What does this fold into?
Amino acid sequence: MMVIGYHIILTGYGHWLPNDPRGSKSRKIFIPNIQPLGESHHGRKATQPSRGEFQSFHRNAENELLHSVLWWNDAERQALIGAFGEVARDQHLTCYACAVLSNHAHFLFRKHKLKAEEMIGLLKKAGREILRERNLVPKEHPVFSNDRCHVYKDNVSAMRNCIRYIEQNYEKHHIPIIECDFVTPYNDWPFHKYNTA
It folds into this structure.
């Protein structure tokens, strides 16, 4: 498979746990206290929990977490977007889509010398630092979950579908759009030279 892009998802701390009843991308439970709440299941479960089951799990989990579960408000989202933009510019990353929501963020980056896992590390570090510097979160708060969630894209159609999916997240989550000045329109890279349409 020729990888041309990385769909990266950053999840806020406590919002999608390894043993989440919906299933998870995680393979390991990092917080022993939440282990009794359920088994981990890698990937989305075929049968999704009811709303009541989901809410009950998260109420119980919040009591066992080491830090509070945060919901990013507009000021925090603005700060995060600024920090993510700095990473993109400093590392010369080409970003085709970005949505920073109330408890997670989506990006579509062009393939780069940095691995997806390295991009995730840099984005999380920058996001944590800006929120701590501005006293928007407690100094010891991790801000993001420990997982490293990314999906490889290998063709133009997959890239364009991912961009649409990311952009639709604002409306889906009823979140006001914040423009990201580091996002570049997608031009069918790396096949743009052959696209004469």
Remarks:
- The chain has two domains: 5-12+71-172, 23-64.
- Residues 23-64 form one domain.
- Residues 10 and 105 are 5 Å apart (CA to CA).
- The chain is about 35% helix and 15% strand.
